[in-house]
Amino acid sequence: MPYWRLSLFYLCYFAALGALVPFWGLYLKQLGFTAAEIGELMAIPMATKFIAPYLWGWIGDHLGHRMLIVRIGALLTSLVFLTVFWLQGFWEIGIAMALFSFFWNAVLPQFESVTLLYLRERVDRYARVRVWGSIGFIVTVLLLGVAVDKSGPAVVLPALFAIYLSIWVSSLLIGDPQTEIVPASQPPILSIISQPPVIAFFLVCFLLQAGHGTYYTFYSIYMEEVGYSKTLIGQFWALGVIAEVSVFMVMHRLLQKFGARRVLVSSLLLAALRWMLIGNFPLSLPILLFAQLLHAATFGTFHAAAIHLVHHYFTGRHQGRGQALYSSFSFGAGGALGSLLSGYLWNSAGPGSAFGLSALVSILAAIIAWRWVVNEL
């Protein structure tokens, strides 16, 4: 297994998220957009994630050349993003975000399939490769937090372009793994998707990311409004991902001991606690730090358990589309709805209500996971 080449790709890919998620909202605010407009714009990359991964996943499953799709998607992302340097209007930026995120969202699900094919029967070791993505995120938010404090949010533009190019370069170093021998009698993918445990699983993933919508869209803006510096905001984000890294290192043991369903339920309950703390105690530094440590559960343990379940639910030629569906329903549809709702709630009902709704959604997801999700089909 090409451990370091796979790890380098994850490092570069999630470095882009470390620039986009914490600081893009601040850039949009600097351009003069309202909270509702920021929510709508931040929902665009997530909405394209609902469509793009499955389309590219279908192509990857039928052609088998997943790394070619990854390279094309990464290169087109970089080229389209260049246009943002000259755009300022709502519709102009919205169209550009829709285009570059359409290609960017083609990349990760295909690469997840490549990684799992390299891992083969050692899928429980996935977290040890994926952890480098978290490291890339941490380094980026720490450095960009300082840069944004010194030079303003516009510094995010050249940083993101350089990172997108690095994703493309790192993709050139990895070849397609040997494909699995697919049984001729493998059932159609609809027969898997229509099973109640799989429906419940995707609904849970949708609700978890809907709950994250307020956090991803307004956390940095919220922290800035209550008086924290951009440097400290970057450190808040980094702390959450450091906690995520720590849990990734022992994730295979947690899955073996407790099973994926219990890990999902625990993650969702801790997510509800996290949103209540952030929404109601923004001026308490100790509480905010504790809430950021809970990122180990709200993203780290949940995502690793979800990837584990997708790998067991979808096998053979369905692997790419299974990963794409997970990305589409969770980070795509769920994230888009969460961002939109948070944008409309932020000024009308206030941050406490927006984060309170996120907590309720997380509790609902926990109930569904406990009742209907199973570890394997």
The topology string of helices and strands comes to HHHHHHHHHHHHHHHH
Helix content: over 70%
The secondary-structure class comes to: mainly alpha
Largest sheet, in brief, is: none
Structural topology:
Elements: H1 3-30, H2 35-63, H3 66-81, H4 90-104, H5 107-119, H6 126-151, H7 156-171, H8 189-193, H9 196-225, H10 230-248, H11 251-258, H12 260-280, H13 285-293, H14 295-313, H15 319-348, H16 351-372
Name the features.
377 residues, mainly alpha, Growth Hormone, Chain: A
Can you describe this structure?
With about 375 residues, this protein is mostly helical. The chain has one domain: Up-down Bundle (Growth Hormone, Chain: A), CATH 1.20.1250.20. It is globular and about 60 Å long.
How do you describe this structure in short?
81% of the residues lie in helices and 0% in strands.
